[in-house]
Every structure is written in C-alpha cells, then in structure tokens.
Amino acid sequence: MTVTTRWACPRDPSRKDRGPGPMTSCRLCGGRGCPLVVYACNNKAEEFCFVVERNENGSSKFMCKDCGDTFLGTQSRIIAHKLQIPGRGVAVCMVPPSNEARAILEPIDVVGHKDVSQRKRASGEGKGKITKEKQKMQKETDMAVARFFYECDIPFQRAEEAAFKRMMRAVGDYGAGYCPPDRERIADNRPKADTGGESAKGKLPDKPPGLLWACMETLRREKEACLGSAMRTGVTLVSDGARNAKAGVVAYAAATPKGSVFVSVTDAAASGQAAAPTPEFLAADAEAAVRKVGEQNVFMVVMDGPFPCAQALQILQGSLPRVMTMRSAAWGWDAVLQDIGKRFRTEVLAPVHAILLHVTNHPVIYGVLEGLKGGRHLLEPAEARLSVDVVPVRAFLSDKTVIKHLWSHPAVSLWLDERGAGRQAVRDRHTALGLEHVHNGDWWRLVEAFVTLVNTAVPLVGEHDLDAPNLYKLPLMYDQACAALQQPLSHNGQEVDTT
C-alpha cells in the first residue's frame, strides 16, 4: 500500500473550499503548510476523504475533504457522512453533497443495503416483523420521553432545545446498553488534578475530573472558540421584517467589526408568504443569507420577534449547528438596514443638511427661520436631524411658498446683497421660480435634487418616513440619488463614479 504526503493545515470545518490546504494564518506552520500522511484509496468512496490511518481490523480513519471532520469506519460511514444520512454512527457532513458525489456514492449505498436486506431475509428476519418491532419501540420510546417531561415538570418547549436534541442524538449513536450517569456523577464538580506533568511511580493514577466540571469546561472552551472566531472574522447577521397592507419584506444585515453591511432583502409577498411567513420560509431565507456571507464567517444570527422567529431559529440551529442563534426585540430597521437606509440618509442627505446648517448659523437667517412654520427643524444640528427629521425638512423645502418667503424676506435680501458673490450667476436660472436671491447655485442644485428625490421616495415606500416597511426600494432610491446629485458616493465601502 503506497503512502503519499500532502501539505495541509487545520481548517474551520464549515469552510466551503474543498479539504485541507495551505493556510497563511496557520499558527503551526506560519503558512508553509502542515504535513499530512495520506494512504492510497482502496475504493471509490474513499476518494472523497483522506485516509489518514489504516487499522488491522479493517476499519480506517478518514478526514472529509469538504468539512475536515475525522471519523473511524469503513466505506459505509463515508457514504453516510457524505450523503448526509443520519443514524449510521457518524456525524453528517456540513457541506451539501455535490452531483458527482451523489452519482458515485448513491449506487454503492443502494447495493450495500440490498446485500444487508438479503442476508436478513436469509436468516429469517422478515420485513413485516422488523417494521412492527420498530413501531413498538418507537411508541415505547416516545412514551418514555413524554413521561420524563410530564413527571419531572419540565416545560414541553424544552423538547425543541438544541441541548435536548444533542443528548438524544448522542444516546442513539451509542446504541443499546447505555447506562446514564446517576445524580452523584452529574453533580460531580471535582476539577482535573494538576500533577505538574509528573507522575509518582507506584501510585495509582489520578481520578478523572468530575462530569459537571468537564461539562462546564467544554462549554467554556466552546464559548471561547466562538468569541475568538467572532473577534477574528465573526459576523452577526441581524434580521428584521415588516408588513404594510399585503406587502412584506425580510431584510438581513451583517454587523462586522468594521461596520454594518447590507446582505439581502426578500419580498415575502412575491414568495407567497404575504399573510404570515412560516418558520420554514424564514429559516430557509436565513440559511440563504448565511451562505451568501459564508458560513465560516457567521458567528450569530439574530431574529426579531416571537412566532415564527423562535421556530425558525430552532430549524436553523439544526441545519447550521455551528452558528449561534438569538431572538431579540432590540433590533429594528435602523440596525438591519444601516448599509442602505442609514447610508442613504448620511451620504445623500448630509450634503444638504451641512449646507443648510452653514446657512442657518447666520443670525439673520436664524431669526427668519424662527418665525416660519417648520423652520425650527432646520435650526437643529445636522447630526440630530439625519435619522428622524427627514419628513419635516422635506415638507419645508418642498413648499415653494415658504422658500419664497424665506429668500424674499427683507433681512435676508439685504444680507445676500451684501454678500454679492455668486448671486448674479444663478439669478436667471431661478427667475421662473421667483427666487432671485439664491446665494449659491450649487447649494440650490443639491436642494432641488433632494426635494425631487424624497418627494418621489415617500410615495414609493408607502409611508411618511424612510424607515417604512417597503425598504427593498431603497437601493433604487440610492442609485437615483447618486445620479441626481452628480457626485461620487461611497457604496459598500467603494467609491462609485456616477458621472
């Protein structure tokens, strides 16, 4: 049997790239590559794994080329792992099987089970007998689980907890003959003895740590691993949704250490979920968002709301067990749509508000605005107006009578005449509007673009606020703003030239 040497580094099992390979961030080799001894394959199934050990009893140790998991067994366990078949003594692969894997492994699996069935029939084990026994065992097991919840006064919703499912899966994988720990073993919080790396000759070996201590230590390590992953590349996916009449959307944003990034928006009505999205729909939508970002990069998924979000998170925990989930009512549209909604306000409206703030700082303009209805919003700092006062400012600016009153006010006219610069260049342009004293053409161009854009946007989203439910229209509005303002705007962290 030939032995080959490949270069590989430990990878996160949820990575999408196939199998181990050189990693620049590897702490063991510094990116040079870690040695991995691989045995030659004996059959077609082994080609989808690395054979890292060969045992005399016929079983081998395999490393999946897709997810990096290691397990002992034969080709039947490779097939169960790759085709994601549960209940065969091996954890299923987190990466969906490719068409090539299905085409090769499924016929082998069918033939293998056919041989087993023939052996059972030859030994007198009839199909009907097995089915009846399984049905009886299923009923007895269900009854035992239900009695456990009822007699111990455990809330029934705990049956949906990931910890309960993990426990039942582990017991099932062990098989018949499992003896659960008693109360003393479960409550044993004795820490692991520290021998300082030395063992006294002639003495009995130290006792293993207590079960409770080992459990808490495992949870601590898992938490540290998750937090460490979040600190390096972790992303929290934040989800929120809303309905307006018969239209509804579900949006996702990724909160990263470098800021928030818009991920996706799903039109629930177009997906046939206009009335009330089902947990299955929300779970599938969340899984699609996770795949879009990259499962290896996602640390947590946060959903807002009770039903059906709680059920969707439970489904998601089963399909993506390495991703933490949390339900919280603290997240809303502002958190979910920062990359579009907030960027739209800050980058499209900020130039207008900044110029308005500069103009209104003058005592003459300040005094005039104090006497105008709606003008007080323009006197507040720009930072305080951006998120909440879009509509009042829009209404003020879109009222041509108010603007004419402002710029035709004697005090303002006198002040503008004293400034002089730039007034003649734009007077002819705005004569039709009756605005003869506009002091800055560029300022008025921005105001016109702002008024036109927001007047179009408000009916478009169907509400009197930019945080309305139909915010999947905001990308279009953002593109319109780039064109209307005729200046480069930051888009997903990159400069986009719209000229």
Automatic annotation (TrEMBL):
Record field: transmembrane: none
Extract the InterPro entries matched here: DUF659 (IPR007021)
Superkingdom assignment: Eukaryota
Spell out the residue ranges making up region: Disordered: 1-21, 115-136, 182-204
Pfam families, alphabetized:
DUF659 (PF04937)
Q: Where is the DUF659 domain?
A: 211-342
Protein name, per record? DUF659 domain-containing protein
